Task: structure prediction
Amino acid sequence: MSDDEPARDAGYDDLLDAIEDGEPYYLECAEGHGSLPPRHACPHCADRGLEETPLPETGTIEAHTTVHVPTPRFLADAPYVTAVVDFGPVKITGQMVGVDHDEVANGDSVTIDVGRTQTDDERLVVFEPA
Amino acid sequence: MTRVRVAGVGLTPFGVHPERTTRDMFGEAGLAAIDDSGIDHEEIESVFYGNFMGELSEHQGHMGPLAAEALGLDVPATRYESACASSGVAVREAVKNIRSGEAEVVLVGGAERMNNLPTAETTESLAIAADDLYEVRAGMTFPGAYALLEDAYFDEYGGSREDLAHISVKNHENALGNEYAQFQKEIDVQTALDAPPVAEPVHLFDACPITDGAAAAVLVSEDFAEANDVDAPVAITGTGQGGDKMALQDRNYMTRTPAAEKAGQEAYAEAGIDAADVDLAEVHDCFTIAEVLAIEALGFFENGEGIGAARRGDTTREGPMPINLSGGLKAKGHPVGATGASQVVEMTKLLRGSHHNSAYVEGATVGVTHNAGGTVASTAVHVLEVVE
Result:
């Protein structure tokens, strides 16, 4: 690791790479529970047989908020919409893009991608209307 | 199993005190608790200390020994960190320590310094109570997380921002006359509704303030209290702790808080009570929706009924189930690592008749405190009862 390049977060950054490559996945256990990496055991049942399984192409917005007071990492991004999206086996949190804030509604169908924050050009999970 | 009595309690004034270190504030609150107990400080065998963000706000880890020496004590001292439930968890460990027979007299409490940071950095510091990889990096703030819970609640059960504004109005009213409260001023529903948004649908008056402060209590075994003629009419008769997945996205529910349900059930079972026996409660209203989720999880109201409780008058001072007679986190303030202990302090005063709102709950014998960490991924609940 060089001084000017922060270490990757194994599992998490691998998943973001896969989302960027158009091949998002989640971890599925023998009982069919979903979770996100890094995991050695299913957080729901402790099963250790976790398989990378393709994420369904679309999910639906379960809840959303328009954030007006951000953390320093998102100062230039605010206001923005954070949403929890239900893909069935897993739910994922990300930022809504490509839609007016007022147009976002729970139950809307969205797809997943990776975007960049306006503040620090850091990667983050984003959702777009399907 | 010996019962645990609350022998003494102490607070600092909660508010904006950016110049005060946690060691300074905890020294004041802890010594006040020792003085209130009338017990010689040499009897204290251990210190249980809650703090959340000392590394970020004060560049200070390893705070247990600092907490003990602030009180002039040379005893084992440990810091407990469980986000906003830090000192609730510390109280639980202190109770278990006495019950186990390990100690007869312990001091428990917590302190937090927050206002020495700019608001954006405090927001960042509070966000570390959420999942960094999967929530914070996606832009979730702490108010944003509760906004998601509020949004989901409105979707499932209905209710309105106006219902929640009544909670804010109630808690501000309760803090009037509480000399330790950060806000001692009335507000009205329209003021709350007109406040600027923080993370919609959460607006400014739905959110607790950023607070500096400390709280402490001296806990003793019943045997010690009787043998030493300690005036300690209030006992902690039940303690419970519940957990949940860290991130909202990994939970089964976004409109319920199972960690609080489990903590409540455990604490009630220990005390041999059920929700109907509870006369009053101090609950973790870091946001107005959090009070709703708390009073439903504790069994005082059915799911979906809690949101209208303040508006209906059910949870006001004059109502059948007064909630947050201290002013709650909303008006009393929320020095994160001190909050759980401060609830025990306020409840002890309410039950022993030395609180500015004690007159509203005359004859009450059973109180509950509910202290939640993060978005209720951890919760500590305690039952306090008048036993003599």
Summary: Residues 12-20 of chain A form the longest helix (9 residues). The mean pLDDT of chain A is 96. Strands of chain A lie at 25-28, 34-35, 51-54, 59-67, 80-86, 91-96, 109-116, 123-129.
